[in-house]
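Entry 14. Structure prediction run on the chain below.
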Amino acid sequence: MLASLGVESFFGSPLKTSTGDIIGIIAIMDTKPLLIENSLKSILGLFANKVALEVQRRKITEELELAASVFNESLEAIIICDANTNIIRVNPEFTKITGYSLSEVKGYQPSIIKSGIHSNDFYKNIWVSIIEKGFWQGEITNRRKNGENFVSWQIIKAVKDSTGNIQRYMSIFSDITEKKKAEEHIFQLAHNDLITQLPNRAAFHKQLNDAIITAAHSTYRLAVMFIDLDHFKLINDTSGHPVGDELLQQVALRFKEIIGSNDIISRFGGDEFTVLLPCIETIEEVSEVANKILDSLLSPFALLSCEVTISASIGGVGIYPDNAKDASSLLSCADNAMYSAKNSGRASCHFYTEQMQIDAHERVVLERDLRDALTNNQFVLHYQPQFDVKTNQIIGVEALLRWQHPTKGLIPPRHLHSPWPK
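Output returned:
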């Protein structure tokens, strides 16, 4: 290549880093032969070294300026500590998040922003991870200068030299408090009833499934209750939904005062509440809670616009593992018991029995057959004479509707009383 440029003579010296890496070359070239004295060769070598050092210095300066820019402009807080975990430097974002300036924390340990809500074991596990893996990352609650706690996602890393000795500790964290609040709000909307702030149907199902798994590995039983407020729809329709909502809130407060800390109550929907007693030894415990719930409704509810008295029917009680061994079946048992409680005059509590399941099945079949009877004109009219007991003369007739079932024959009227109101 040099020949094509007409170069006849060339003398160069490599540009080397302190580690011996060649990063370039400095050379003297001419189109005619040159005679270079040895002293000039030495000078060229020294000049090459000087140029190489300057190139390295500029490169290091650029890297330092870049690092400083990243450090100062980072949107995450950065703490740099010495080998003894004393703070030697923090960036502006640290000051923005915590309220502490460098002069206020320099020489102190990072525990200056410790919130105090985590256990000693929590911090021990952090250091175990740093020692064994060289770093730790996770969610941690820290405290600002003004005493306010904040949640952060934090990374702590040990910086080691070529021999493996720790020279520095570096921690990077960001404030995720608002993000956590948003997540908690979304969770509340998904798992809590907006009116009563009780767990909703979805949350209750999960809690029930978890309780069944726990009960399966213990000697305890669990109970599920359905609570249905009697004639709540009438109150809602006559007084308005705001009154109904206020009543539900006050009912929920009374129920929460009764239910134990280990027990769970939820608003299942509408005027229905469910109770989970995850650890019972005797049926009497369930009866005691049920009676307390019924008694809690005896006193009138003083609402903003009126005073309301309401009762409840407690259907349920489904007992695990006596009545069923899965959540869906237990809830079905409690629902069947609720139907029995409603039919017996309300304001009562009924425990599930196998006969309830049989009756429920018969109701479903009967209601289906009734719909078919209407479609297929299976109802017939019978006339029953009315006699005058003194004269023994017919004085009138009573028209009676009878159901002529195609396979069961004439259905007695008493079999229609249960499903007919529905």
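The chain has four domains: 3-71, 74-180, 192-352, 364-416.
Filed with the rest of this week's runs.
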